[in-house]
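Lab notebook, design round three. We kept the backbone fixed and only want residue identities now. Task for the bench partner: fill in a sequence for the structure below.
Input structure tokens:
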């Protein structure tokens, strides 16, 4: 039997993972390590960890960028494109179909019941992810203070990009001039000019593409931070989505395998049909291919630079703060009566105590919601 080419191997692996890998970025990374290091021996564990570290130094969806890095390492530039596309496309098509069903049948009682049960579970998943992810970046008292400052600014309505880069720059400067052990960030009242203001703007496709291109170009941290960016951009700034629609979009993204960033496909379809789904998907994923392609030569320098490392520490802390702020803001839509509160608390308990797969929790929440609605 003729051996497959490296490009074919990459395509088949990531088509399968894009169709079956539930559980979010952390689960995707664990699955990739098992497949490419232990099972296939494409690289040593040290090489895999180097690639994983590189994804944390650039914005965008971490597990998708890791897939792109692996494809590049295994099959060259063609592998870079094929691995990313094969990981993204299956999940995108699933979300696209669910978005069509949502738009067409979203008002029937069964659909409303399904989302009633899913929303509290999604809120619990985001809260648990926030708790787990917070253990790594909050590694000094100064970074804890910086995180609290970022949370205050986010709750006050300061633009998310200003929070990210402002905190990152402050940490880098303080690390550079005062040393790593003496960080302090003061949470000053934000100037009114920096506070985001809600103003509904007419919808059109170029703006949709640019909105998602911006998010894909600047989002650091877990895919769950996407929730904060989409709320700031599409709910608060542009007024195109409601809070409920945004939570529905995140729920659909959580219910499907592959990258959580396929939430963009759902949002794009809800706002602009098939053309909107395509524009949003291209906008949010294109930066990942670009950043992986250009980051290779600069990654060693970033790792050696204490200032660059401090900046990334600040960005990661600010990302968590944005995630926490939007979790608080959306809790009222997800939990508004006793059954939804019980479901949210039970989901948190199952995630923390028993490490239940989040996909099973979402499916259970959907079933309970339908039964409750019936």
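Proposed sequence:
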């Amino acid at each position: 039997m003729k051996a497959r080419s490296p490009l074919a191997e990459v395509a088949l692996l990531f088509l399968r993972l894009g169709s079956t890998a539930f559980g979010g970025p952390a689960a995707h990374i664990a699955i990739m390590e098992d497949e490419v290091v232990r099972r296939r021996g494409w690289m040593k564990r040290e090489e895999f960890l180097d690639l994983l570290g590189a994804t944390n130094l650039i914005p965008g969806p971490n597990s998708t960028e890791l897939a792109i890095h692996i494809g590049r390492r295994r099959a060259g530039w063609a592998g870079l494109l094929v691995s990313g596309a094969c990981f993204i496309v299956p999940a995108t098509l699933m979300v696209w179909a669910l978005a069509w069903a949502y738009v067409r049948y979203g008002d029937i009682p069964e659909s409303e019941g399904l989302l009633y049960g899913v929303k509290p579970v999604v809120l619990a998943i985001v809260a648990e992810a926030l708790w787990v992810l917070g253990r790594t970046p909050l590694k000094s008292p100064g970074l804890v203070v910086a995180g609290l400052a970022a949370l205050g600014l986010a709750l006050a309505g300061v633009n998310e990009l200003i929070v990210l880069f402002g905190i990152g720059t402050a940490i880098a400067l303080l690390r550079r001039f005062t040393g790593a052990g003496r960080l302090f960030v003061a949470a000053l009242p934000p100037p009114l000019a920096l506070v985001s203001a809600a103003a509904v703007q007419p919808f059109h496709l170029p703006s949709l593409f640019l909105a998602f291109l911006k998010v894909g170009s600047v989002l650091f941290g877990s895919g769950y931070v996407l929730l904060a960016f989409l709320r700031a951009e599409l709910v608060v700034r542009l007024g195109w989505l409601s809070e409920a629609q945004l939570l529905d979009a995140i729920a659909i993204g959580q219910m499907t395998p592959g990258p959580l960033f396929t939430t963009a496909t759902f949002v794009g379809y809800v706002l602009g049909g098939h053309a909107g789904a395509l524009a949003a998907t291209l906008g949010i994923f294109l930066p990942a291919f670009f950043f992986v392609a250009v980051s290779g030569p600069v990654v060693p320098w970033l790792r050696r630079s204490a200032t660059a490392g401090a900046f990334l520490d600040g960005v990661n802390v600010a990302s968590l703060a944005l995630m926490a702020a939007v979790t608080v803001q959306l809790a009222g839509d997800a939990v508004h009566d006793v059954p939804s509160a019980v479901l949210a608390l039970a989901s948190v308990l199952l995630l923390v105590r028993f490490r239940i797969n989040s996909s099973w929790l979402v499916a259970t929440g959907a079933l309970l919601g339908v039964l409750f609605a019936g």
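Keep this in mind before ordering anything: Residues 62-105 form the longest helix (44 residues).
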